[in-house]
Design goal:
Number of helices: 3
Low-confidence stretches: 1-22
Largest sheet: 6 strands, antiparallel
Distance between the termini: 16 Å
Helix content: 25-40%
Mean pLDDT: 85
Number of strands: 6
Structural class: alpha+beta
Radius of gyration: 16 Å
Strand content: 35-45%
Shape: elongated
């Protein structure tokens, strides 16, 4: 299973690199595909020491006269939703505040997350430590929901 995942991720990242190098691709019928970004995501539960790692590839598509539609691919529960959340803040993870009215529990169970890759051609290297998974979900929504 791990080999399949590794081969799939390699293929996705290769496709992203090729598409990113070409910018946005456009077909003769006006359909456009644009790679927004590709991120390597890591989540570490400090209490148990459990580490989870996955990749996220975000693209947008548009047809003539239609609004762009964001798509996501990766090992998250809802990769498209994660990409939509990132697209809303132009890939700035510090600006994420997906569920600001949620009340997070007072339990101390630290969770550390990291993201590395590119977004709209700019390098991304970001990390943050949250008091628990509730605070993580409150801030980052689906981005670190593995």
């Amino acid at each position: 299973m791990r080999r399949f995942a590794a081969v799939t991720v390699t293929a996705l990242l290769s496709a992203a690199a090729l598409t990113t190098g070409a910018g946005a691709a456009q077909a003769s019928d006006g359909f456009r595909v644009h790679v927004l970004g590709g991120l390597h995501l890591k989540r570490v539960d400090a209490t148990s020491g459990q580490t989870q790692v996955t990749y996220l590839l975000c693209t947008s598509t548009a047809s003539d006269g239609a609004a762009p539609v964001v798509h996501g691919l990766g090992g998250l529960k809802d990769a498209t939703s994660a990409c939509e959340e990132l697209a809303a803040v132009h890939g700035n993870l510090d600006a994420l505040s997906v569920h600001p009215t949620w009340l997070a529990p007072a339990v101390v169970a630290p969770v550390e997350v990291r993201a590395a890759g590119t977004w709209e051609g700019a390098r991304v290297a970001w990390g943050h430590k949250y008091t628990n998974g509730g605070w993580l979900a409150r801030a980052t929504g689906d981005v670190f929901a593995f």
